[in-house]
């Protein structure tokens, strides 16, 4: 079977929602985890992003594992923190979900750029998606670290070759962007409904 680096996450996305349309914790986090190998192909340019995503996945997974039936639905841990008035803490699951969603926004935007702008270098594609997604929430330090990291972005053609595997990479990127974006939007809408979608980095 023809496969690209996106094949596992595309398969996983089919299981993210319960029959009643609710986003399930473990399948959502699994999809995010399945995207991490894609980041490895970027090398040093994505080391920061990968660490950030990995840390937030671990935080949410740890909470989920403490009581899988209680936290089966992704937003249940956030609702609990809102009730306990701990949602705004820097180590909260709410904060973890927010930053995980933002990092995924950045990746979706990046892959859309690669699809839509065949003439852009990898650094251009990364910088544009960073400006559209994460930059406004980052302080000066995070922003400058990111800008430096983007200069280490790999050669675009080589990167596309590496992630293509044996499948149709453009079709998979398109599927990834169109299928994953609505989940991320739902996360933002939920976080906005409780007034927590615009928290900035401390």
SSE inventory with pairings:
Blueprint: H1 7-13, H2 25-40, H3 47-66, H4 76-83, H5 93-116, H6 122-132, H7 140-150, H8 156-164, H9 169-193
Helix pairs in contact: 1-2, 1-9, 2-3, 3-5, 5-6, 5-9
How would you describe this structure to a colleague?
By secondary structure, the chain is mainly α. The chain has nine helices and no strands. Helix 1 (7-13) crosses helix 9 and helix 2 (25-40) runs antiparallel to helix 3 (47-66). The longest helix is centred in the C-terminal third of the chain and has 25 residues, at 169-193. It is globular and about 50 Å long. The model has no long low-confidence stretch (mean pLDDT 92).
Q: Calculate the mean pLDDT score and round it.
A: 92
Shape: globular
- Annotation field: number of helices: 9
What is the helical fraction, as a range of percent? 55-70%
Low-confidence stretches: none
- Kindly estimate the percentage of residues that lie in beta strands according to DSSP: under 5%
Q: What oligomeric state do the depicted chains represent?
A: single chain
Task: State the order of secondary-structure elements, H for helix, E for strand.
Answer: HHHHHHHHH
> From the helix content, strand content and strand pairing, which structural class follows?
mainly alpha
What is the rounded distance between the termini?
46 Å
Largest sheet: none
Question: How many strands?
Answer: 0
The radius of gyration computed from the alpha-carbon positions, rounded to a whole number of angstroms, is: 17 Å
């Amino acid at each position: 079977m023809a496969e690209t680096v996106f094949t596992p996450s595309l398969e996983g996305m089919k299981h993210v929602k319960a029959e009643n349309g609710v986003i399930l914790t473990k399948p959502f986090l699994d999809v995010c985890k399945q995207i991490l190998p894609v980041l490895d192909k970027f090398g040093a340019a994505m080391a920061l992003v990968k660490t950030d995503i990995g840390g937030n996945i671990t935080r949410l997974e740890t909470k989920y594992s403490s009581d899988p039936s209680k936290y089966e639905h992704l937003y249940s841990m956030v609702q609990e923190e809102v009730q306990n008035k701990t949602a705004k803490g820097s180590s909260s699951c709410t904060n973890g979900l927010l930053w995980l969603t933002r990092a995924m926004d950045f990746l979706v935007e990046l892959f859309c750029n690669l699809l839509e702008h065949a003439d852009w270098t990898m650094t251009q594609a990364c910088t544009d998606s960073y400006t559209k997604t994460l930059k406004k929430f980052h302080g000066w330090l995070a922003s400058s670290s990111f800008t430096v990291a983007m200069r280490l972005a790999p050669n675009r053609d080589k990167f596309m070759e590496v992630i293509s595997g044996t499948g149709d990479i453009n079709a998979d990127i398109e599927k990834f962007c169109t299928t994953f974006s609505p989940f991320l939007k739902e996360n933002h809408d939920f976080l906005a409904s409780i007034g927590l979608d615009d928290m900035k980095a401390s």
